[in-house]
Amino acid sequence: MKRKIGGFLLFLSKAILFISVPVMFYIGLGYFYPDSLYYFWGNIMVILLYSAILYFMSSIYNGYNFGSSSLQEIILSWILSLIIANGIQYFVISLRAEALLPILGLVIISAAQIILIIPVASIVNMLYYRQNPAQKATIVYSNIEKLHVYGTIISKQWKKFRVDNVVSQDETDSLILDSVKKSEAVFFLDVDEKKQDRLIEYCYLHNIQTYIFPTFPKILLNTAKTIWLADTPVFSVKSPHPDTGTLLIKRCMDIAISLILIVALSWLMLGVWAAVYFYDKHPAIYRQVRVSRGRRLFTLYKFRSMRPDAEDDGVPRLTAKGDDRITPIGRFIRITRIDELPQLFNVLSGSMSLVGPRPERPEIARQYEEMYPNFAFRTNVKAGITGFAQIYGRYNTAPEDKLFLDIMYIETHSILEDVKLMLQTLKVVFQPSSTEGIESDSTTALK
Fold first, then answer.
1. Global pTM value
2. Which of 35, 111, 231, 382 has an alpha carbon 20 to 30 Å from 117's alpha carbon atom?
3. What pLDDT shows up at residue 440?
4. What is the largest CA-CA distance in the chain?
């Protein structure tokens, strides 16, 4: 009964969050822009349209992912969603008025909505964790190195999981099963397939949640097509090859969007160019050879964020935490991702796409492939400015995890997915942790 009441309160709180924001916008619309209001049914349509845009954007930015995302991420998701929804609605009412209306009213409405969102989202988040306390968890592992890496990741999710048992797959079956029986959630790290299958079956029958860290074949199975041989289901795995129509639409979208952004952001790029150049009187554009589709090399353009002598020792390396090679201006443009803007010209020329795996330097790519031969699969598609690894990973994400993220994109690629990832990129810009560098004693993200 308590769980049902808690679930209802959580649903009610989410409903209040979704309903209150459009209602506040409508009230503000009537106060600041009274001439934009319609009669009864017209106003209902305005609210429904605004609500639909807000729901779509908040879903894209995972604004309802309580328990999966942090409170800060959820609040950021809602702020971005309402800014976009408010902006669209502002241009709609401006078109009706045949003039750009004073923007101060929109700013005040948005500020009031943000003030409302923060406490409401905090209450919903609190109710979620009160209703869903941390689960007692067991980790079953085979590789001690992976346990150190992923065990740390799991332990950081202390609001969701309380790790009570960590057992090796080499322990006796009875000992492993005893640990599993005491748990509400079980994590499997590269466990022997036969043993893992038996344990998953047990967990499934006894309503114990399971989490499986993927391997390359499991990533492929996750996107496999199910076919039927007589009355037997079979998973069909095949290297994806986008049809000509999809590639043509993707290329047209790359040209159109990159051209629009170059024109719209030309003032910003010119200002950054001047700031970088006059800081130390060295070239503001940094050119670097990268690898793209079919392992073809191309020259990637970025605003220079490091000292001119950053790699005079001839050793190619990624940016480290607290890297003293980064200039003060460079630190700002890296955090805000402004340094990536010149790559719009790479997209326009066709050497890159807006969405795709990030291109690596040839020397670093070779190092990754020595440890993870499947890393080369990332070059099956054209490199991009943004993608799965940029949205769900970080700059210092381990190469194997980056490979898994990029393969997930390659396997599920579609035009709609590209649009979704481009919209989600806006949220990443406001998350400085996504640009966190590698360890200071490393040259690559290998762990």
1. 0.82
2. 35
3. 45
4. 76
SS3 135: strand
Average pLDDT value for the chain? 86
Which residue has better confidence, 291 or 9? Answer: 291
**Which residues have C-beta within 8 Å of that of residue 290, sequence separation ≥ 6?**
297, 298, 299, 300, 359, 360, 361, 362, 383
User: In the predicted model, is pLDDT for residue 323 greater than 60?
Assistant: yes
Q: What are phi and psi of 352, to 5 degrees?
A: -135, 170
- Give which of 351, 414, 423, 415 is closest to 386, Cα–Cα: 423
How far, CA to CA in Å, does 11 sit from each of 64, 69, 424? 11, 17, 25
Asked if residues 166 and 138 have their Cβ atoms less than 8 Å apart, the reply is yes
> Can you spell out the DSSP letters for 400-415?
HHHHHHHHHHHHH--H
DSSP code, position 311:
T
Contact residues for 253 (Cβ-Cβ < 8 A; gap 6+): 354, 415, 418
> SS3 for 307?
coil
Instruction: Please check the confidence at residue 442 and state whether its pLDDT lies above 70.
Output: no
For 252, 346, 351, the CA distances from 255, given in Å and listed in that order, are 5, 10, 12
Q: Map 201-237 to HEC letters.
A: HHHHHCCCEEEECCCHHHHHHHCCEEEEECCEEEEEC
Q: Cβ contacts of residue 321 below 8 Å, gap of 6+?
A: 436, 437, 438, 439, 440
Here the tokens at position 410 are 């390659």
Q: Is the pLDDT of residue 109 over 70?
A: yes
Amino acid at 363: E
Report how far apart, in Å, the C-alpha atoms of 42 and of each of 35, 106, 156, 186, 417 are.
13, 20, 49, 53, 33
**Tokens describing residue 356:** 């795709």
